[in-house]
Design a protein that fits this description.
five-stranded parallel sheet, 5 helices, 7 strands
């Protein structure tokens, strides 16, 4: 089995990472933690191209490192082992998450109810709802 969870460094996405980690441990699944760089980021021949330069990619990598440590500490607390992978994605978050799940054959997606863009989400709709609309696999929204 393979699970995908998205993180933006918010408390809500941390809760999703912890929950997804417990589920991955319980079902012997590989857990991929993804962070989406936006807006107007592109992947060109495997390289992230950002208007903000390398700093945005570094911040994304730091967010993934933080989430990996959180997942690892959750696994330790549960006295389980789980395979944890990380991936830096680019684009609109919901599209990138749903597409990554398709590309990797994920069996489920876990997302936080609200993330760092809560103010914007009130106007244009939540990333979690958009993932639900776009995904081909079950999506768990963690509060």
């Amino acid at each position: 089995m393979r699970y995908l969870t998205a993180t933006d460094g918010s408390e809500e996405s941390d809760a999703a990472v912890e929950y997804a980690t417990r589920q991955a441990a319980a079902f012997d699944a590989t857990l991929e933690i993804a962070h989406v760089l936006e807006p107007k980021t592109e992947l060109i021949e495997g390289e992230v191209v950002l208007p903000g330069g390398e700093r945005a990619a570094q911040l994304g990598e730091q967010t993934l490192d933080q989430a990996r440590r959180l997942a690892a500490s959750t696994v330790e607390a549960e006295d389980e082992s789980v395979r944890i992978e990380t991936e830096l994605l680019a684009g609109r978050p919901a599209n990138a998450i749903a597409e990554r799940a398709r590309e990797t054959g994920a069996d489920a997606i876990f997302v936080g109810h609200r993330g760092l863009s809560e103010e914007r989400e009130r106007v244009v709709g939540s990333v979690a709802k958009s993932v639900l609309d776009r995904a081909d696999v079950p999506v768990t929204v963690v509060r």
